[in-house]
Structures are given as structure tokens and as C-alpha cells.
Amino acid sequence: MTPLDLFSLKGRVAVVTGASSGIGQHLARALSKADAKVVAIARRAEPLQALSDECAAAPLSVDLANISDWDNLAEQIAAPFGPPQIILNAAGVNLREPAGDITKDSWDLTLHLNLSVPFFLARALLSGMNGWGRIINFASLQSQRAFPNSMAYGASKGGVAQLTRAMAEAWSHQGITTNAIAPGFFPTELTGPVFADTEKAARNASQTAIGRNGRLDDLTGPAIFLCSNASAYVTGQVLYIDGGFTAK
């Protein structure tokens, strides 16, 4: 095996949630270009179909917030290409509510989609991995920093960091590693309001060590590394891809 072979995803099946837009869509496209067979999951069927037409990903329109039968979902995911060995849990929600406006429903939705879904989906797919697997969760700058109007989101993403360590402890001995990517400031639908404010976007860029906000292509290499044999001895880690924001 050559050094480049370590990064090959050829023959691997990957499932990517939140694949209709933003980071999930970008990484579904990137994994497909890296020769993985991709099942792309999101609520919205139309952008999923456009992604499928572009890169041959198998679209699966599902509202993950309302799943009650995870075994049935696992069967649907495995139908196009077989059971996946790679899971990218990119689906998420940030309602940006001040603490006084948070309701039980909005709190429960945020923690369910951001924290519970990655666990229950991974557990449902675990038996199909057969001794080799890669689970990539999505943490956040708010896994360790508090931001305004994001209490529920921050709580969920703090939980994702610990969930990642706990999943690694439980399953790494089976050859199934679990790590998390914590993106910095990237332009997505979730961060649209921030990037629409040019002053705020510039302020965020100035807080990084590199001096700019992220571009979606900045996530491609780290994600492929965590999905491949190159990361075989890396598990339980949160990789901050933030231009050095958390280093300052």
C-alpha cells in the first residue's frame, strides 16, 4: 500500500446526513469524487435529487427529527449499495434563540437532531460495518465556547464532543473509530445571517489566526482523512477546522 492508498475510499459505502445543503452537501459530493458510494440523506427531496444527478449519490428523503424506527432506516440506507462503513452526521439545527425565548419544544428539537440522532443512527448501522468503520460527528466552536443566542445549540454541541469520546470508547476495539469535526466560520444556510452581515463576518475572520473565514473546500481533506485508513489510529478526537480561532 502506497501512502496515497491510505486515503482511498474506493469500495466504501458512506452515508451523509444533512446532505441537501452546506457542509453535508459539500462533503457528500467530495466523498463521491473520492470514489465512495454515497447515500445522501435530508428532508428536502429536490436538492437531494440535484446532488444525485451531479455525483451519482443515492438520495434518501427523510426527516431525521421524526424517526421512530431506526432499524427500518438502516435497511433503507443499505438498499442502494449495501451497509455503509462510513457515517457523516452533518445534519443539524441552530434556532438562534435568546435564552428567555427557548421553549421545551425548541430545546428538545435542537438536542434531538444535533445530539440524539448521531448516536441512534450510528448504533443502528453498527452491525453492518463488519470490523471496519468510520463515524464522523459534527461538533462546533460552541463545543467549548459560549456564543450569544445559542444556549440550546451550544449544549447540544458540547454533548457531541463527549458523545464522540464515548462512542470511541465503546466501539473502537471493533475497528470502528469515531471522531468529530468542529468547523469554524463557514458559509452555510445555518450561518447565512452571520455572513449576510459584512461587519460581523469581517470580525469573525479577524479572530482567526489565518485571518479569513472558512471555505467549504477547507473541509475536504480533513474529512477524507477521517474517513480513510489514514486515520486508523485516531479516535475520540475533535478536530477544529477553524483557521486557528480556538488557538487564540
Automatic annotation (TrEMBL):
Pfam families: adh_short_C2. InterPro entries: NAD(P)-bd_dom_sf (IPR036291), Sc_DH/Rdtase_CS (IPR020904), SDR_fam (IPR002347). Belongs to the short-chain dehydrogenases/reductases (SDR) family. This is SDR family oxidoreductase. It comes from Parasulfitobacter algicola.
